[in-house]
Amino acid sequence: MTTDFNSFFQFAITVDNVIFGFDGQDLKVLLMKRGEIPYMDDWALPGHFVKQEEDLTSAAGRILEELTGLKSVYLEQVKTFGKASRHPMGRVMTVAYYSLININDFEIKPAFIAKKATWFKVSDVLKTPLAFDHKDILIACIDRLKVKVKTQPIGFELLPNKFTLTELKQLYESVLQHQLDKRNFRKKILSMKILIDLQESQEGVAHRPAKLYSFDSERYNRLIEDGLHFDISYPAMQA
Length: 239
Prior knowledge:
By secondary structure, the chain is of the alpha+beta class. Helix content is 28%, strand content 26%. The protein folds into two domains: 11-151, Nucleoside Triphosphate Pyrophosphohydrolase; 153-225, Orthogonal Bundle (Arc Repressor Mutant, subunit A). The longest helix has 18 residues, at 134-151.
């Protein structure tokens, strides 16, 4: 008995990118308005088909740049979605990637099949329909982010170079989707000694200016080698 190879080379592969950003208040995700069928004019994650000669990671970077103008963005593979009915035009498997970026460091330039590309609050997107199974993809990436942000300092990639402890706390709350106790959070994050006190304060704010910090990545890497266990896993604040 021989294998009928033709029957196994009749479906396509796509990549979909979940790009998270933080504006100082809310966790956001980048969506595009589709300019081709199916789901014309619907909001979707930036994604498209992988070319025959491409590997997945190269395709993810190319597609993200073509659709949004974002380039040189680190993308981490999360999960493959292969439900047979997920694409109305045929059998299409998709590989999901996610990334964390500082919104202020990048300019969005929609092109190709993206009529528009806009940042949306994640909490709002979770309440609205998306094209294909992109809601499932987004949820899977949020779950991955929740796990990693507790045990690795990846959240700092969403912040400006200079930030306050309140901004850092708001970031963690927006990712974990619950409030944290202010005193405990400050005590724990400062005890890790991975923040640099810049001896500066906010300027041009109506309230009392807060101290500014930056993330000490070199010290963090040394501490990890010495056995530091990074852990920002808190239960929700009691009402």
